[in-house]
From TrEMBL:
Lineage, top ranks: Eukaryota, Viridiplantae, Streptophyta, Embryophyta, Tracheophyta
Source species of the chain: Stephania cephalantha
PROSITE patterns: THIOL_PROTEASE_ASN (PS00640), THIOL_PROTEASE_CYS (PS00139), THIOL_PROTEASE_HIS (PS00639)
Domain Peptidase C1A papain C-terminal stretches: 136-361
Protein name (Swiss-Prot/TrEMBL): Uncharacterized protein
GO cellular component terms, A-Z: lytic vacuole
Family the entry assigns: Belongs to the peptidase C1 family.
Keywords: Disulfide bond, Glycoprotein, Hydrolase, Protease, Signal, Thiol protease, Zymogen
Length: 369
């Protein structure tokens, strides 16, 4: 279910989506074209931009240093209204509109909230074995089985890779021990800087980005991760490493890279727990809810997230019918997307969602308080 904190523009776009679907369904043709959904026209956006901006400032409690900054952010906001409209045309099965990132330029958004780095795979990363796929459930969600902690918020730090890593290990540790323990992203941000001497610049680098498999390699060699409560998140990478080996809460036994085959991804998800994945987040800056299935989306991976399940949703009773989707836990807080979650369609490696998938096994023996 989409977040209840929808902006006025988001509601307009959502009503446009409903109207378009209804119009298509009412057509006398047997299989008419799905009408593309469009937001209000440019004149309407221009006339109402100030009203939307005031609502945005109030909803997300935004304030700026001075009038010059306010004016600049308003100009960026108007540009993002137009961008949300373009995204709605390209991605009509989702709802796009105003989010907490609507006053950020695309480059600011990438720098502050993404951070997946394309590094070489560590030596301990193996190909996951091929699993049987003939008896996979039609729908599956690890949230219903107790393996997923609450949605977290990375803040304006490019540490998404650390949240993807902890989420995968939290799930694996739950399967191994029966206990769900929130693990420390800050330990990875502060302490995971091990580099391959043959790969200059290949380190995981705190708020400047990293890679989940590299973080799992660090965790394997360090012995494990501490609890979130013992090593809380600060959203900065300027502190010293405070890792205390006596307080390890979960340990990595092994980790593997899953093939691009979607049935294998689903099989690994069901058997091994939530999966650490990479994605192209270009449509996520304006995402409000629904199943994102853009006509065009690059496969350059720039954001680390957690795959927790899959399902299908009914759309217009014409072409879309049931649209299968992946369920993704993000790390931008519960006010983003569908209470912190993102749905993206399965089937065609949309936005590179199938291109970088890792599964982790947790060591059963852990140090507990």
């Amino acid at each position: 279910m989409a977040s209840s904190l929808l902006s006025p523009l988001s509601l307009i776009i959502a009503f446009s989506l409903i109207a378009a679907v209804a119009a298509a369904a009412a057509s006398s043709d047997g299989d008419p074209l799905i009408r593309q959904v469009v937001a209000p026209d440019e004149d309407d956006l221009a006339l109402n931009a100030e009203h939307h901006f005031k609502g945005f400032l109030s909803q997300f409690k935004k304030s700026y240093a001075d009038e010059a900054e306010h004016a600049y952010r308003f100009s960026v906001f108007k540009s993002n209204l137009r961008r949300a409209k373009r995204h709605q045309k390209l991605d009509p099965s989702a709802v796009h509109g105003i989010t907490q990132f609507s006053d950020l330029t695309p480059s600011e958004f990438r720098r502050q909230y993404l951070g997946l780095r394309r590094l070489s795979l560590p030596a301990d990363a193996h190909q996951a074995p091929i699993l049987p796929t003939n008896d996979l459930p039609t729908e599956f969600d690890w949230r219903d089985r107790g393996a997923v902690t609450g949605v977290k918020d990375q803040g304006s730090c490019g540490s998404c890779w650390s949240f993807s890593t902890t989420g995968a290990l939290e799930g694996a540790n739950f399967l191994a021990t029966g206990k769900l323990v929130s693990l420390s992203e800050q330990q990875l941000v502060d302490c995971d800087h091990v580099c391959d001497p043959e790969q200059p610049g290949s380190c995981d680098s705190g708020c400047n980005g990293g890679l989940m498999t590299s973080a799992l390699e660090y965790t394997l060699k360090a012995g494990g991760l501490m609890r979130e409560e013992d090593y809380p998140y600060t959203g900065t990478d300027r502190g010293a490493c405070k890792f205390n080996k006596s307080k390890i809460a979960a340990s990595v036994a092994n980790f593997s890279v899953v093939s691009l085959d979607e049935d294998q991804i689903a099989a690994n998800l069901v058997k091994n727990g939530p999966l650490a994945i990479g994605i192209n987040a270009v449509f996520m800056q304006t995402y409000i809810g629904g199943v994102s299935c853009p006509y065009i989306c690059g496969r350059h991976l720039d954001h680390g997230v957690l795959l927790v399940g899959y399902g299908s949703a009914g759309f217009a009773p014409i072409r879309f019918k049931e649209k299968p989707y992946w369920i993704i836990k993000n790390s931008w807080g519960e006010k983003w997307g569908e209470n912190g979650y993102y749905k993206i369609c399965k089937g065609r490696n949309i936005c590179g969602v199938d291109s970088m998938v890792s599964t982790v096994g947790a060591a059963i023996k852990t140090n507990k308080e």
